[in-house]
Specification:
single chain
């Protein structure tokens, strides 16, 4: 037979788990120093520039 579960306790445990997941995500997103944020921005800009530099413009078709 299945175990009997108190629905109120289950919901509270589930809510705590969701809050902990959100807290962990917030720590990763907002818990960085100013220098770390600047480094990330520089790396993203460098990657975007490298991508744009490799882009070939199509030649216009003369009619």
């Amino acid at each position: 037979m299945a175990d009997i579960v108190n629905l109120k306790q289950f919901r509270k445990k589930q809510a705590r788990s969701e809050k902990e997941k959100q807290a962990e995500q917030n720590r990763l997103t907002f818990g960085r120093t100013k220098i770390e944020k600047q480094q990330t921005t520089k790396l993203n800009d460098k990657a975007a520039k490298a991508l744009d530099d490799g882009h070939i413009e199509p030649k216009p078709v003369d009619e």
